[in-house]
Amino acid sequence: MKVKYPAEAFALGLILFSGGMKEAFLSGILVILSVVLAEFLKNMLENAVSLWSLRLSVCIGTGAVCASAFYLGFAAVGTEISIQLWIMTFIIGLLAAKHVLMNRLEADYDGIFWESAFVWGLGILLAAAREFLTGGSIFGYTLYQASFQAKSFGSYIFGFLAAGMALAFTNGILKKKCTESQIWFLAIPMIVFARPFEMVSFGGIIGAAWTIGVSCILFFSVKKTLKFGRTGSAYRGLPAELLSLGFIYMILSIY
Question: With helix as H, strand as E and coil as C, how does the chain read?
């Protein structure tokens, strides 16, 4: 069965904001509000404007409100959002709008909230684990510090892994699949935003282009291989691709 929760928007939100429980809690709420807003705008405008105007209005409206809500929400809890990260939150809104426009949700807000609650809850649990493994704290409160904790658990590598596991666990519980999701809409912006390695010797622009190109080519080859893999139905599609991209980041970060 197709998912009603915005898988791509949730995935990008978890990649960016699952390093801490507080951030994951807030970002999950904002992703849910974004997809509800997109569905509301679609139902309100679809009989009043043309198709191209509908798509443009829903995308711009949802993206702008989502980015503004992230900026204000994180400012309220004392977390500063950079310009680059703010642009990524705008993309989260675009992905929520894309999910609504590409799927007939039929104003089923109950279904959206029900499925999204699983992703949100699992994302919070994984974020709490990452925060504890990073510095021994949960929700900003230090509980216990030990030698096995490392700052690397707070990197985007484990953000990809957390996002993949959260979606896979949700699909397993709800008996859903994310096979029709398009990971490139979040993979390319993420590779540009947080490059897995830097080629300083090549210079700024050439080094950045080399890094982005190599990362995309590697992921494209892995993505092709996954089509023939015997992955479980819950992991098939977007979850397996997110996990693969996380491992690619892990390998490339060595260089």
Answer: CECCCCHHHHHHHHHHHCCCHHHHHHHHHHHHHHHHHHHHHHHHHCCCCCHHHHHHHHHHHHHHHHHHHHHHHHHHCCCCCCHHHHHHHHHHHHHHHHHHHHCCCCCCHHHHHHHHHHHHHHHHHHHHHHHHHHHCEECCEECCCCCCCCHHHHCHHHHHHHHHHHHHHHHHHHCCEECCCCCHHHHHHHHHHCCCCCCHHHCHHHHHHHHHHHHHHHHHHHHHHHCCCCCCCCCCEHHHHHHHHHHHHHHHCCC
Give backbone dihedrals phi and psi of 150, rounded to 5 degrees, phi first: -150, 150
- C-alpha separations of 134 from 32, 86, 152 in Å: 27, 24, 7
Identify residue 174 by its one-letter amino acid code: L
The dihedral region occupied by 2, where left means phi > 0, alpha psi between -120 and 50, and beta the remainder, is: beta
Outline where DSSP puts E strands in 6-46: none
Against a cut of 0.85, is the pTM above it? Answer: yes
What does the block give as tokens for 77?
A: 């809890």
CA-CA distances (angstroms) from residue 11 to 6, 123, 181? 8, 9, 11
CA distance 130 to 162: 9
* pLDDT tens by residue, 6-27: 999 999 999 999 988 999 999 9
Question: Which element (helix H / strand E) includes 39?
Answer: helix 21-45
